[in-house]
């Protein structure tokens, strides 16, 4: 896709110059800053930048060398502000050296994604077959409790303690052990920096506290082993992450195969709910430990905007009690109280009545 020309960008920046709150004798720059990345470091001449964007927070800027090969854009020699995103990869350990702060492996990932997009041969990164392991801090009791049995057999100095690091891995679809609850299953282990041991150490399901092994072979798990994702599989999913907040050229929600300029999706407001998002559990959300958003959302009920009172109760009044009894199988007393708003049914009954009202076209 073609972007704005340099001339157009300069004209836009110039129009915003008058909005600068600073003394013009001290600085004459526009409030819209044109980044130094747009110029050659040695000659200061403008250069063509390229961008590969997978979704809003997953993108990489690059330039081309003399042979036309893509080269990732680096902001400085210290690589402190490299121009590619780590969103969605930042929680994973460095597979080449888990103790190192070096994130150069993500540069290899992005370069391969760009080369694949341009139908260029990819380069092997050497760790595709390793289990994808992340690091997590024990910042809450639910992350420490699964290690209670393990800690009982150890001296305190050797126990897993609050604010220690944990290792965590991600189960592949259909890779859960037989009988495990896929919605409440997450493997964690005491922090292990040696990638050669990741397939050998025991892993604990934080929900059931049962111990399992992990494997990167086959398509599914078994009774004692979970089939976990590899770095290669994580990277494959990463390159085709759908931008669900946007629409494609036809106005439909974009998916993994959507290519081109995305549009804004039309939103119809049905109700307003005040919630506290996952900021208190941000690390766990990014590491994939939280599977159900309800576990990290706190809803602050406003009776003036409450969905049950404003939407459901009026819908319950559109049908007679006899028909509601027949459709729901619930007692007349529960239905009378619900219709009059005197008492709310149990959550399961609320969901039942809502689903019936939706099926009958009342909501």
Question: What would you note in describing this structure?
Answer:
- With 363 residues, the protein is an alpha+beta fold.
- The chain has three domains: 6-117, no CATH class; 133-229, no CATH class; 302-359, no CATH class.
- The protein is 24% helix and 14% strand.
- It has helices at 6-15, 104-117, 141-144, 148-152, 231-239, 282-286, 307-316, 321-328, 332-340, 347-359; strands spanning 50-55, 58-64, 70-72, 133-137, 165-169, 187-190, 203-205, 211-215, 225-227, 246-247, 263-264, 274-276, 298-300.
- The strands form four sheets. The chain has a six-stranded mixed β-sheet with strand order 4-5-6-7-8-9, with no helix packed on it.
- A hairpin with a 5-residue loop joins strand 7 (203-205) and strand 8.
- The mean pLDDT is 85.
What overall form do the CA principal axes indicate? globular
In percent, how helical is the residue content?
Answer: 10-25%
Enumerate the strands of the largest sheet in spatial order, edge to edge or round the barrel: 4-5-6-7-8-9
Main sheet summary: 6 strands, mixed
Q: What is Rg?
A: 27 Å
* Class from helix and strand fractions: alpha+beta
Quote the beta fraction. 5-15%
Number of domain units: 3
How many DSSP E strands? 13
Distance between the termini: 42 Å
With helices defined by DSSP (H or I, 4 residues minimum), what is the helix count?
10
Q: Report the order of strands and helices.
A: HEEEHEHHEEEEEHEEEHEHHHH
What are the low-pLDDT stretches, counting only 5+ consecutive residues below 50?
none
Mean pLDDT: 85
């Amino acid at each position: 896709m073609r972007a704005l020309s340099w001339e157009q960008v300069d004209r836009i920046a110039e129009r915003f110059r008058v909005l600068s709150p600073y003394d013009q004798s001290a600085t004459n720059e526009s409030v819209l800053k044109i980044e130094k990345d747009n110029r050659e470091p040695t000659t200061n001449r403008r250069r063509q930048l390229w961008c590969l964007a997978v979704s809003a927070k997953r993108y990489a800027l690059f330039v081309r060398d003399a042979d036309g090969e893509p080269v990732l854009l680096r902001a400085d020699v210290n690589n402190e502000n490299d121009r590619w995103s780590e969103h969605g990869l930042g929680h994973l350990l460095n597979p080449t050296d888990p103790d190192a702060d070096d994130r150069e492996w993500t540069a290899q990932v992005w370069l391969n994604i760009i080369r694949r997009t341009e139908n260029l041969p990819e380069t092997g990164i050497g760790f595709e077959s390793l289990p994808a392991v992340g690091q997590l801090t024990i910042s809450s009791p639910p992350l420490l409790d699964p290690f209670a049995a393990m800690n009982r057999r150890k001296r305190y100095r050797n126990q897993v303690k609050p604010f220690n690091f944990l290792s965590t891995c991600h189960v592949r679809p259909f890779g859960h052990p037989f009988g495990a609850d896929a919605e409440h299953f997450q493997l964690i282990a005491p922090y292990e920096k040696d990638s050669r041991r990741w397939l050998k150490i025991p892993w604990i399901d934080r929900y059931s506290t049962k111990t399992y092994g992990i494997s990167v072979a086959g398509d599914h798990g078994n009774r004692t082993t979970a089939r976990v994702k590899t770095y290669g599989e994580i990277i494959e999913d990463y390159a085709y992450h759908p931008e669900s907040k946007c629409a494609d050229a036809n106005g439909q929600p974009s998916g993994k195969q959507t290519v081109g300029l995305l549009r804004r999706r039309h939103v119809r407001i049905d109700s307003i709910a005040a919630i506290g998002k996952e900021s208190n559990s941000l690390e766990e959300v990014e590491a994939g430990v939280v599977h159900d958003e309800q576990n990290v959302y706190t809803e602050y009920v406003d009776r003036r905007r409450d969905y049950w009172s404003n939407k459901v109760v009026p819908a319950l009044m559109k049908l007679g009690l006899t028909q509601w009894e027949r459709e729901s199988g619930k007692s007349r007393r529960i239905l009378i109280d619900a219709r009059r708003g005197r008492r709310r049914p149990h959550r399961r009954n609320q969901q039942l009545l809502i689903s019936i009202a939706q099926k009958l076209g009342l909501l």
